[in-house]
Write a structure and sequence with these properties.
This protein has an eleven-stranded antiparallel sheet, covered by helices on one side. It has helices spanning 52-61, 136-139, 148-156; strands at residues 8-10, 14-15, 65-74, 77-86, 90-99, 102-113, 116-121, 127-130, 142-143, 146-147, 159-169, 172-181, 187-193, 200-205, 208-213. It is globular, with a radius of gyration of 19 Å. A hairpin with a 2-residue loop joins strand 9 (142-143) and strand 10. It has a single domain (8-28, 46-213), classed as outer membrane lipoprotein receptor (LolB), chain A, CATH 2.50.20. With 241 residues, it is mainly beta.
């Protein structure tokens, strides 16, 4: 998600790659009440006993890897952010400009692995610092500024879920489920779900459109080479420019 300028996370190199980055996709306060449920006590929903959103929640909470692609506009500039996550936790996030030909130059990039956050702007050298954000495997994939599961949990209390058409999506077909305001026909959001695995392929809420792919596929997250002097030992320190 595009930012209109530089965002120093540690000097000018470590941009908190989430500062606007993907509508807050890297907001490190991802922890929410719904993410703290104990798996040992989790009820396994079935189509007969639960609504579709409960099935989606269960499938997403037990996923071990995914890619989230968010497309939007920030400060008049179009962007696309791709984030790959592999559990136990590692992530690779890239935000690029968008033009008529598709994805353009990288604006920001971050990698988190082995308890360390690596970040850079554009083609600048990598910088690193200890990772301080919560484990994103605990909260699941994002949907803009907050986890998808938190958003769905909130929508369940205010909407009626209506079965829609079966459509073709990246990776296969999915069933559209419209989330309608109350018992009316005003659509607040929609989610397209794999009917066999109950994993989402696409989520839309207002102007936010998020695609989910690569569910439970192997992902390699490797630490980049960091120049000497571009590493800080504590989250509060400042890296040299």
């Amino acid at each position: 998600m595009s930012r209109g300028g530089r965002f120093p996370l540690a000097g000018k190199h470590v941009a908190a790659l989430g500062c606007g980055l993907l509508l807050g996709l890297l907001i490190w306060s991802w922890w929410g009440p719904s993410s703290k449920k104990s798996r040992s006590k989790e009820h396994v929903p079935t189509a007969a006993s639960s609504g579709e959103l409960d099935l989606v929640e269960y499938a997403v909470r037990h996923a071990r890897s995914w890619r989230v692609t968010t497309v939007g506009t920030l400060q008049g500039r179009s962007f696309q952010t791709d984030q790959d996550v592999f559990c136990p936790y590692g992530s690779h996030t890239v935000t690029r400009t968008l033009n008529a030909a598709g994805a353009g130059n990288a604006l920001e990039e971050s990698i988190e692995t082995g308890g360390t956050l690596y970040a850079r702007e554009g083609t600048d050298a990598w910088s690193s610092q200890p990772a301080t954000g919560p484990d994103k495997c605990r909260v699941g994939p994002m949907a803009g500024p907050e986890p998808l599961l938190n958003t769905l949990d909130r929508l369940k209390t205010t909407t009626t879920v209506a079965r829609g058409e079966l459509v073709q999506a990246q990776g296969g077909s999915c069933r559209v489920w419209d989330l309608l305001a109350g018992s009316g026909s005003n659509r607040l959001a929609s989610i397209c779900v794999d009917e066999l695995r109950h994993l989402p392929y696409e989520f839309q809420l207002g102007g936010l459109k998020v695609r989910y792919t690569n569910w439970n596929l192997p992902v390699v997250i490797e630490a980049p080479a960091v120049p000497k002097g571009n590493t800080r030992d504590t989250p509060g320190a400042t890296l040299p420019n």
